[in-house]
Amino acid sequence: MTEPIKNTPDQELSFVTGGEVNIRQDPWWWLVAAVAALILVLVVAQPDPFKDIVVFARDGIAITVLVTVVSYILMLVAGLFGGLGRMAKNKILFTISTLYVEIVRGIPLLVQLIAWYFASPVIIQQVGTWLNLAPLIEYRANPIVTAIIAITVCYGAYMSEIVRAGIQSIPKGQMEAARSLGMSHFQAMRFVVLPQAFRVILPPMGNEFIALLKDSSLVSVVAVADLTRRGREFMAANFNPIETWTMVALLYLIMTLFAARIVSFIEKKTRYER
């Protein structure tokens, strides 16, 4: 008599609602591979100008990734505090958080970038003159640091609303149960509410990362040598706009597609208790 074949844990989870998604491969990786293959074909088949563009813009790619990743991490911190402030019972914290969200969210990112880069140094220098502090009087804006601050402030306002909505989506009974177990308000938020809210807001967080990656191209207007600016410099020097912006668009596309697949992978891995 043959013994029944035992299913693996993943096979068993395929009969659980929501568990079957974790044993399937993401079919859209083929699109990432197709775009990567197209870039490789262009570089190999026609090195002039496609390989030259990639070599010329590689430091711009690094700057784009740096600005995106650092801004995103800081944005998450700003969004967490902003979201908690929007739910605070303290009227001062609630008012400050609400003003931050309503004002910053209503101003375009490009305007904020220009203001941070051109206006903020003037204000700091005037304050330095008033206080007679030489470091402030001689202050000069660092393009990359200024761009990161501007993006963090702008996207932090949007993330604040995402965090607020995620926390409010958790039933109040969760907080009440945690408090009945003797947890403080902070412990209940830290160990019960926020971990559940994180799963709720993970998809919009991924969308924010992809949107931030694309909007990072705006930092080229404040003298940051990112991918867009390097592409513009190459086009001006070689007068080949079609090839230049085709390759720049493909480089942005491969980064956004890869980020989207990573976000999708994380969503699937956190969809049920492991």
From TrEMBL:
Bilayer-spanning residue ranges: 28-45, 60-82, 103-124, 144-167, 188-206, 245-266
Its GO CC terms are:
ATP-binding cassette (ABC) transporter complex
Q: Which UniProt keywords apply?
A: Amino-acid transport, Cell membrane, Membrane, Transmembrane, Transmembrane helix, Transport
InterPro entries, A to Z: AA_ABC_transptr_permease_3TM, ArtM/GltK/GlnP/TcyL/YhdX-like, MetI-like, MetI-like_sf
- List the subcellular locations: Cell membrane
Q: Name one Pfam family in it.
A: BPD_transp_1
Per UniProt, what is one GO molecular function of this protein?
Answer: transmembrane transporter activity
Gene Ontology biological-process entries? amino acid transport
Residue ranges of every copy of the ABC transmembrane type-1 domain listed in the record: 61-263
Is Transport given among the entry's keywords?
Answer: yes
Q: Which CDD domains match?
A: TM_PBP2
Regarding the membrane, this protein is recorded as: Multi-pass membrane protein
Q: Which protein family is named in the record?
A: Belongs to the binding-protein-dependent transport system permease family. HisMQ subfamily.
| Name under which the protein is recorded | Amino acid ABC transporter membrane protein, PAAT family
Organism name: Dehalogenimonas alkenigignens
